[in-house]
Design goal:
Length: 212
């Protein structure tokens, strides 16, 4: 009868069944990510894709191909003149930059901005020994630093294709270890722009499985 007369009784019963943070149901709630993890995840995304003010960052040499493409796309979107300098090189035919004509200043500023963005986007120890004359030279030498010269890349691709063709389960190797090794091979293939279809990858892994 008291419950019938109390218009809030159903409300209290409902909230009690859900829990108010102190009930036994707290163990069933989804844990809230820590502020540190949220910040870490956000920084990771910013590093990979860049922001309005910062280009994508190259943290590891193995990520060069993906990050290089993203860096160029970022430049085209947010610093087009700097991207042109990166692709075409920079040479005004003079080095007395304090006396530039008005029509030369824009190109000079774009070049200096491009170099600054390259330094900002690449980890210091990766570029510490790179000497360059302009942003295009910097960009080309960074590529060699990360993946090697054209001849080295050519030979590496040959070896990777051969490794893929001959891939199989090693003696006394577990299936899980073999799959892990295949995953590393896939990453190396992608890093060197060697493309196999999904069907080819699945067939290769299936054929590599031990018979017993």
């Amino acid at each position: 009868m008291d419950d019938f007369m109390n218009p809030f009784s159903d409300v209290f019963a409902f909230t009690g069944s859900l829990g108010d943070g102190t009930s036994d149901n707290t163990n069933q709630t989804t844990p809230t990510p820590s502020a540190k993890k949220i910040l870490s995840d956000a920084m990771s995304v910013d590093s990979a894709y860049g922001t309005y003010n910062k280009p994508p960052k190259l943290i590891a040499i193995k990520d060069y191909n993906r990050r290089a493409t993203r860096f160029e796309e970022w430049l085209k979107a947010f610093a087009y003149l700097s991207w042109r300098s990166l692709k075409n090189g920079f040479d005004l035919g003079r080095d007395d930059y304090e006396n530039l004509e008005d029509n030369q200043i824009e190109r000079y500023v774009a070049e200096q901005k491009c170099i600054a963005l390259l330094h900002q986007s690449v980890r210091d120890d990766i570029i510490a020994l790179i000497e360059y004359k302009d942003s295009r030279d910097f960009w080309e030498k960074l590529k060699i630093e990360c993946i090697g010269s054209a001849e080295i890349v050519k030979n590496k691709k040959k070896l990777l294709r051969k490794e893929f063709d001959l891939f199989g389960c090693l003696k006394n190797e577990s299936v899980s270890k073999m799959i892990e090794r295949f995953g590393h091979l896939k990453m190396e293939l992608a890093r060197h722009d060697i493309i196999y279809t999904q069907e080819e990858l699945v067939d290769k892994l299936f054929d590599a499985l031990p018979n017993d």
